[in-house]
Amino acid sequence: MRSDRLIDLRRRRSAKIVATLGPSSSAPDQIRALFEAGVDVFRLNFSHGTHDDHRARFAAIRRVESTTGRPIGILADLQGPKLRLGTFAEGPVEISAGAHFHLDLERQAGDVHRAPLPHPEIFEALQPGTELLLDDGKVRLEVESCGSGFADTRCLVGGMLSDRKGVNVPNAVLPLSAITEKDRADLSFALEQGADWIAFSFVQRPDDVAEGRKLIGGRAGAMVKLEKPSAIQHLPEIIELADGLMVARGDLGVEMPPEDVPSVQKQVVHACRAAGKPVVVATQMLESMITAPTPTRAEASDVATAVYEGADAVMLSAETAAGRYPVESVAMMNRIACRVQEDPLYYSMLESTRIEHEHTTSDAISAAACQVAHLVDAAAIVSYTTSGATALRAARERPEAPILVLTSNLFTARRLAVLWGAHCVHTSDVRSFSDMVQKAVRIAHREKIAEIGQRVVITAGVPFGTPGATNILRIAWIDR
């Protein structure tokens, strides 16, 4: 059943918002409030919570979708391998800079001189000079000597260590799959529940993406979280294999110098746009709003920068999952994105990025539609699509006119909820050329995207309902 509030829920911005559900935001009324505040895609973090917890969240999201008539995306974020120290016999210890520290596979609890590291794959990848980052880089060790199951290190940056702190090895590719047994169980569950996107953590190489895609089997979009420097080194191959990418800046900031992360973010956003793949910028965007009702000016600028760059979506993590102001965080992100879009420089900055087109009919029609929409001042570009490919090509152009996506495939509508500029409507297939035009005009007016007297540019493919066959461009008037 469609809601009378549908008009109010139409987004007035092209960049989308992804929000993480957690203890602060999982009640059905909270999920509805988050959606009304601006969430387009809900992220379920499988590092936390039980399957029963996530099942309830799936059901609540789909109820909101049913009552509002707006397709909502669900992103299932898999945990990936977690590399951690073992325990310490007498509680936390302080490691001083310059001190020698021994790591091994022994089960015996650690002390100020050694600690168990129960991950043989780490030792396989070590060599003298390799750095180990403990507890998100708060403690840094350099390997002086190593062998089968042990490493003698010198502490470069000292600090406190306690039980099961995380371990990062930034300059090594570990002989480790990105998908654990827990991930396989979570993936199977998420697909059964109808997840639209599966996010893979700890991706180091293209083979990790290929493994994930094989497990998904086309039942959801594969989103790669860029967390490891080795993944950045294989960016073109990973983009080609993935359906979407996420710039996970928190983990990247641990494994590479923080000053390198902004340029990597820009490179990834540009590369994904050129490839026509959605890209999400994530982590610590409005971090202070976990405990405060307003962000810092630096955080507001950070969100704005991602929007100016043309990211498809910006994401909230702990701000909505565990923070005190989840709805306020979404509302703030929505206001920032809307304000950026009002800036005359916004579209000129997006247009300055040259996009290479393929020599295909579909690419030619999509590029032409955006140019025509600009020249005739069209209210919208209406994209009929089955697989989503037509909408992806249109969004790659970053047009000023909104993209009204009409599809008979509900999965496609939900998956494209993360796509820049896309307003998705699930509708029946068209049967004829006149039906195509009439439906596009009717829905554009109904959704308050176009008013009487305005024009829309329509793209579709003949035969109708054939994926990847965009070959029609039509201009139509909205009349009574």
Spans of at least 5 consecutive residues with low confidence: 1-7
Named CATH architecture of the largest domain:
Alpha-Beta Barrel
How many structural domains are formed by the residues? Answer: 3
Span from first to last CA? Answer: 25 Å
Largest sheet: spatial strand order: 1-2-3-12-13-14-15-16
Measured by DSSP, the beta-strand proportion falls in 15-25%
Q: Tell me, what's the shape?
A: elongated
CATH class of the largest domain: Alpha Beta
Largest sheet: 8 strands, parallel, barrel
CATH topology of the largest domain: TIM Barrel
State the secondary-structure class: alpha/beta
Binned, the helix content reads 25-40%
Number of strands: 21
Tell me the CATH superfamily of the largest domain: Phosphoenolpyruvate-binding domains
How would you state the average pLDDT, rounded? 94
Q: Report the C-alpha radius of gyration, rounded.
A: 24 Å
